[in-house]
Write a structure and sequence with these properties.
single chain, 312 residues, alpha/beta, ten-stranded mixed β-sheet, 20% strand, elongated
C-alpha cells in the first residue's frame, strides 16, 4: 500500500466527475498531475438531477447519499496511489459548482472529461466542459478519452502542444501556462498566429496591394519577429516553434488543420470570456475549439481574471 502524504499546497486541482468512463480517465490524469506537482486534488460530483435540493433542504440528504459511495470508492483508490484527496458531493448546476469550488479554494486548475451530448443540447446550452471553461477564473483542462497525457505525466513520452495565439493578455496567459507544464514533463510546443491580412494591413497603415492568400512580405516578416519575441518571453527557443499563418477563415480552422497534421496531444487557447451580446457577435475561438477538437484542450483566462475573481 502506498501511503498518502499530505501536502502544504494551497492551490489544489479541482476535478469534476459524473462517474462515466471519460470522467474516470480524467480523474486519473488529474490525480497524476497533482502527485507530480505535490498538490492535492478536490474531487467534485455534482448531482444535477437533485437540483431542487438547493431550495428544499429535505432533498439534500438523499442527493448526497446518491453520489457519496461511488465518490468515496474513487477517492480511496487514489489514496492508495499516494494522492492527497478531498471529496465533495454537491447539488445544482455542474459548471456553476465546479467554478465556485475552484474560486473558493484558489485552485490552479479545473480538470473535466469531455462527455458528448446531443447536437441540439450543445447548441442550446453547451456542455459542462464548455460552460466551465467559459466562466472559470482559473485554467480548465478538458480531456478527450484515449489521449496520451497520462503516459506523458509518467515520463514515458513527450507532449506535443499547439497554442493558438493572438497577441492578447489571454494568449500570454496561455503561453505562461504552457511554460509551467515543463514542471510535469517534456513538451514540444508550436505557437500559431492566424491572421486576416486586411486587418493587419489596416492596423499597420499599409496601403499597397494585398496578395490574395498571404501577407505582404514586410508585414509577414514583422509578425514573425513579434511572435518569436513573445514566445521567447515564456518558452526556451529549442522547445517552441512560432508560425504566422495568414488566412481568410476562422482561426480555429487553421488550428484544427495544424493539430491534426502534427498529431498534437493538447491544444491550448486563451479565452477573453466575453459576456452577453459581445460574445455572440464576436464569437469565441475557445468555444469553437472545445466544440470540435478531437484532442484534449486547455482553456486559459487572462491573469487579471484569476486575480480579480479569487479576491472577491
Amino acid at each position: 500500500m502506498v501511503k498518502c502524504v499530505k501536502t502544504n499546497d494551497e492551490s489544489p486541482i479541482v476535478c469534476g466527475t459524473d462517474f462515466s468512463a471519460a470522467a474516470i480517465e480524467a480523474v486519473d490524469i488529474a490525480a497524476a498531475i497533482a502527485r507530480r506537482l505535490q498538490s492535492r486534488i478536490v474531487l467534485v460530483h455534482v448531482d444535477e438531477s437533485y437540483g431542487m435540493a438547493a431550495v428544499d433542504s429535505d432533498l439534500f440528504d438523499p442527493a448526497v447519499a446518491h453520489g457519496r459511495p461511488e465518490l468515496n470508492r474513487i477517492a480511496d483508490r487514489l489514496r492508495e496511489s499516494g494522492t492527497d484527496v478531498e471529496e465533495r458531493v454537491l447539488c445544482g448546476s455542474a459548471f456553476d459548482k465546479l467554478v465556485a469550488v475552484a474560486t473558493k479554494s484558489r485552485a490552479r486548475l479545473i480538470v473535466v472529461g469531455a462527455v458528448g451530448h446531443s447536437l441540439v443540447r450543445r447548441l442550446l446550452v453547451g456542455s459542462v466542459a464548455e460552460r466551465t471553461a467559459e466562466t472559470s477564473p482559473v485554467p480548465t483542462l478538458v480531456l478527450r478519452p484515449g489521449g496520451k497525457l497520462l503516459s506523458w505525466i509518467q515520463g514515458k513520452r513527450g507532449l506535443k502542444v499547439l497554442v493558438g495565439y493572438d497577441f492578447s493578455p489571454a494568449s500570454d496567459a496561455a503561453l505562461d501556462w504552457v511554460s509551467k507544464l515543463r514542471k510535469i514533463g517534456k513538451c514540444q510546443t508550436t505557437v500559431l498566429y492566424s491572421n486576416w491580412p486586411p486587418d493587419e494591413a489596416r492596423r499597420l497603415g499599409y496601403e499597397g496591394p494585398l496578395p490574395l492568400v498571404a501577407n505582404p512580405a514586410q508585414i509577414q516578416k514583422n509578425l514573425e519577429r513579434d511572435l518569436r519575441k513573445r514566445v521567447a518571453a515564456f518558452l526556451p527557443e529549442q522547445e517552441a516553434t512560432a508560425i504566422v499563418e495568414p488566412g481568410w477563415g476562422n482561426p480555429e480552422g487553421y488550428l484544427f488543420e495544424m493539430a491534426n497534421g502534427q498529431h498534437v496531444d493538447l491544444i491550448v487557447v486563451g479565452t477573453h470570456q466575453r459576456r452577453g451580446l459581445g460574445g455572440i457577435l464576436l464569437g469565441s475561438v475557445s468555444r469553437g475549439v472545445l466544440h470540435h477538437a478531437r484532442m484534449s484542450v486547455a482553456v486559459i483566462p487572462p491573469v487579471e481574471n484569476i486575480i480579480r475573481k479569487s479576491t472577491k
